Amino acid sequence: MNNFDVLKFWRWIFNRSPQNAANPNVQMQSMENMINKYIPPGCQLIETYIDIDSNIDSGLDFGIFVNIYRGEDGNLVRVKRKISRDIGCEHTISQSQAEDKDNQHIPGRSGSCYYCLLKWQKEAQAGHITFKDAKRLSSVCTDCAHITASGHLCCPKHWKEINNPEGSPIYLGPEDIESQKRQQTLHTVLDTLATLFSRPITDNKKSE
Known about the structure:
Order of helices and strands: HHEEEEEEEEHHEEEEEH
Strand order of the largest sheet: 1-2-3
Number of strands: 13
């Protein structure tokens, strides 16, 4: 694969990315500049390695590109790049699965936040964004995702952490929070009624 083919492949990858779909020309130029930034003048591309991980559930592509160049002095230059995605929990991920590697934790994609997906699917149905965009914007990384008490995968924008009597964390989604508020209101009303009916009845008439 020659140098032109590599750049053409990068254009194809980033043109189909929902993150860059709104302004592909700007992203295109910045990507080519990034590639050329690390290549010494006069280098000749001699080998390209491409490893793409397509996440079927989200439709997002991750992977790495490795180009090997031979410089004018005969030395080899190896350039490695990753495909990363900005997702709904406001983190950037570069792979589907979480991994601990080289004393570093690398988050992956946990799934789609139930509540974000409802929101962004409506936007997609209205034609404001693409359905692939909706998947990306509702995606949540493995560090942020939690299952709520109602059983939904949730991002930090939609869960609230509390502790149960044993001290373990419980994550409440919007429905759980509303249910908790209703229960607290009901308990307040019952406590008030119980207090009123428990008061002794006194005769306020003056003794003759």
